[in-house]
Amino acid sequence: MYAPVKLETFMKHVLSAFVLTALMGAPAAAETSPHTVTGNVALASDYVFRGISQTGGDPAIQGGLDYTHRSGVYLGTWGSNIGWIEDFQGYASGNIELDLYGGLRGTFGATDVSYDVGVIGYFYPGKANGAVDANTTEAYAAFGWKGVTVKYFYSLGGETFGFANSRGSGYLDVSAGVPLGETGLTLGAHWGRFSFDNNSAQDYDDWKLSAAYDLGRLSGTLSGVTLGVAWSDTDTAGGDGTGFSAPWTDANGQDLGAGTAIVWISKAL
Length: 269
Description:
By secondary structure, this protein is mainly beta. It has two helices and 14 strands.
């Protein structure tokens, strides 16, 4: 039987790993080090995850930290403010998402085919107030080829983002990114399918079109800064013939899966 991972234990192991790798990764010459630590921060007009707004249409401040070894082993953490834990899930308090993940990625020899396998935990600190636990753990596997990636997530716990008895739920993500020559502009497209093990009425498709521009092309002082826009939508609204989709409507009557435009700016650290 699956035993849920405690947030404190998971954080302790990941933070210990970061400290250990930081101590190990202090070579005399940076170019010879097998260790890489990178970070990122972003500001978005809306935090949309798998087509569902996590902030109810409000802005989000986000950031992450990643460690990668030359072997392809990696660890990372990422966080954002959210709103659905209170407005949708019914927590008495909670407005933060913290993700912790680790895995192995690389390529098959000298080919253009890449792979990525790992485990990710999504944690939502707060007072559940009797609501179904929203903490979720997923295993994932991905294959990529020339800008196209197919990735599948499989829920390992008894609850999947607040839906009870949903172990085995899965999400299929098909994404593509196409750089336009040396312009600094990258066009993206995504389609996803979320299938819940406990209730097919919650299943839905989502899709997104995006464009991102490397502002470093304009000035060296903007190196690592990316400006992006996107349109995200799902088939949740009206899918049951009533004009709205109850499983994805929050306490304010807002369909979190409705089509929305997103603008974001990010900085690689």
